[in-house]
Amino acid sequence: VTRLDDVLEKDLTKINERFKDWAVRLSKESLNRALERADVKATKVDYLVAATCTGYVCPGLTSYIIESRS
Q1: Mapping DSSP to helix (H, G, I), strand (E, B) and coil, where does residue 7 land?
Q2: Dihedral through CA 47, CA 52, CA 56, CA 60, nearest 10?
Q3: Which of 21, 32, 35, 45 has the most Cβ atoms closer than 10 angstroms to its Cβ?
Q4: pLDDT score for 66
């Protein structure tokens, strides 16, 4: 649930943390669905790219997605 305070947040650290949390969560769900539909195990994936135009996370979002699957 998004609160108005979240939308109006000005603290960049908090904004980036929220982005990282939600981007990883949503990406992981999407990746799991795609792998399931394609009947492919995650261990068969050699390369993962995540592109976004919102937020700045270092290391990149792809690292967090891969880590969350471990």
Answers
A1: helix
A2: 0
A3: 35
A4: 79
DSSP string, 32-45: HHHHHHHT--GGG-
The per-residue pLDDT for 40 is 95
Q: Tokens standing for 63?
A: 């690292």
3-state secondary structure 7-66: HCCCCHHHHHHHHHHHHHHHHHHHHHHHHHHHCCCHHHCCCCCCCCCCCCCCCCHHHHHH
Q: What is the pLDDT of residue 69?
A: 66
The most distant pair of C-alpha atoms in the chain lies apart, rounded to whole Å, by: 42
Token reading at 43: 């261990």
